[in-house]
Write a structure and sequence with these properties.
The protein has about 600 residues and is α/β, with parallel strands linked by helices. The protein has three domains: about 240 residues, Aminopeptidase (3-Layer(aba) Sandwich); about 70 residues, RNA polymerase II/Efflux pump adaptor protein, barrel-sandwich hybrid domain (OB fold (Dihydrolipoamide Acetyltransferase, E2P), Beta Barrel), CATH 2.40.50.100; about 240 residues, Alpha/Beta hydrolase fold, catalytic domain (Rossmann fold). The chain is built from 17 helices and 27 strands. Strands 3, 4, 5, 6, 7, 8, 9, 10, 11, 12, 14, 17 and 19 form a 13-stranded mixed β-sheet that branches. It has an eight-stranded mixed β-sheet with strand order 20-21-23-22-24-25-26-27, sandwiched between helices. Helix 13 links the parallel strand 25 and strand 26. Helix 5 crosses helix 7.
Amino acid sequence: MTTLLHALFLQVTVAVGPVRSEPGKVVSGYIPVPAGVDSATRIPVSIIQGRQPGPVLALVAGTHGAEVAPIVALQRLRAEVNPAQLKGTLILVHVANLPSFVHRTIYRNPWDQKNLNRVYPGDASGTVTQRIADLITREVIDKSDYLVDMHAGDGNESLVPFSYWNKLGIDPRVDSLAREMAIAWGNRWIYIDTSRPRDPRRSVYTQNTAHLRGKPSITTETGWLGVPAPEMVTRNVEGARNLMRMLGMLSGPRTPAPRPTWIDRAEVLTANVTGTWHASVERGATVAAGQMIGRVTDYFGNAAEQVRAPFAGTVLYVIGSPAISEGEPVAFVGHVQGTGAVSGGPDTVSFRSGDLTLRGVLWKPPGVGPFPAIMYSHGSGSDYTAQAKALGEFYRRQGFVFFMPYRRGSGLSSNVAPFILDVLDSVGRASGPQARSAKMAEYLTGVHLDDAMAGVAWLRTQPFVDAHRVAASGNSFGGIVSQLLASRDIGLRAAINSAGAAQTWSQSPHLREALLAAAGKARVPVLLMQAENDYDLTPSRQIAEAMARAGHAHEVQFYPPFGSNTAEGHSFGYFASLVWGDRVLRFLKVNLK
């Protein structure tokens, strides 16, 4: 299929729906959205095609009709950009959601009550919002090289200018260019968003749809409270010009922009009751963990709910109008990268294993629960701070309590017993590899397994944990422990064995025997997973075979190489949640019902 970029080199007509341009021209018109299960509408677009070839940049405004600063900004941009000075093509979607704009509605299309930024890539046979998304996907996104989804504070949102950078980890080129686009646009706050869906068939968001099609893209939020404040209109225009200069579409220096403040985590706070909203903070406010953001009263002014910051950070937006319904957003708080741990994790906790007091780290979602929980067993190393943070934040965002106890001799529990590798190395030097193998199996099926079972028991007693929805997981030595836990009657519902015994399978026949025996006695479903460049894939294959022979539920999944060497491949279970996250969450959803 001929792309627009190819068309530019051939100097032929550029078409977006029925709107057709040619080099050196500015044309405007409508993409018709035919009637279906509901009424027809249309999408106003302009094409500015330079006289010289270059990239195709799409700017989409009006996804939410009351976010008007970008809509007015694109009208200015259409009037100001001279195609004689432009390299490439600019596609302007002036109002993506015309019914919402005309009827001044927030969030949703008034005809079908769907949010256009939640239905991508759309459906040509669906309701009007789905049909709009389908046409924008095919006629705008698929015909572009780069895309910006331009938002602002909706009619009820008092918002500071910020941008979203998709960091999906699927295509380094797309991630990297999107980062540069976010910086070039010039908003001070940039949210590093790693949570967007990774299935192109369920891409959900405008920006994410482009990103998953290999087109670097960003979402910008520039404006507030549904008004075209002149400074916000200008900022949108300058952001677009800065981006075009970065992409080589326009000449000249970029407008100076502040150094970005990176947001590494953000949370939308919602109301649990319907009533009247009274904000206690302004947009851009710096808040402490637990600080009150605002309160909800009933219609008579009686207190109904207080909403507090889940962690220290910046208020990216706060609702600025009184009306509020249960489940609606009241504020969006972002945690500034490099400013320390956020509340909700990690908390350091203590628990008993026999006569020992061990310690661990805990992440907890906001609220009182009870939540499903993951009891995670770490590997053979002495410190897992970075690994625990990566996993704890991932599971916390998904609504899980995440608990990683440090087994005796490691990390926070290093003061109560010798480090396991020191013991094994000492035995190996004194008595040889077979003695080392036997001692490894003794420890991992003995006191280290006892520590893990004590961790499960402690976790299940916590008031914020649903004791009937707990899974064990682990990597390397922790994968071994997780597989062993799956054979014990301790109240688990599922287990995940990531790279268990990948470094020890060929060296420890005692451990192999113990693991295969445990596989034949599994009491819960087990997911086995590894990256293809891990040390050894044999243990996952043979454990899966043993479980299959015994008729026990299991899944096994090998992923493409992670990183550039076997050590990085072995860390797949810690740092590759962008790759394995969806599969693991499906497994947990099925088994933690």
